# Entry
Amino acid sequence: MVNASLAQGRLPPSERDAIVTTLLKKPGLDVSDMSSYTPVSNLGFMSKVAERAVTAQLNDYLLTNNLMPR
# Structure
């Protein structure tokens, strides 16, 4: 599935969604103030696997071609 996604340049529609929850930035902040919260996106398992595969391939390419900044 990851190879097919990379070959096509897109993820399947079922893997494009994330569950977004909010977490309080620091204990003790005003819970009624929305600016006290930060959003956290929880991706699906296959999205995470594809993301890691892309990161590994891109990193290898950049290192092989001396394109990484020092």
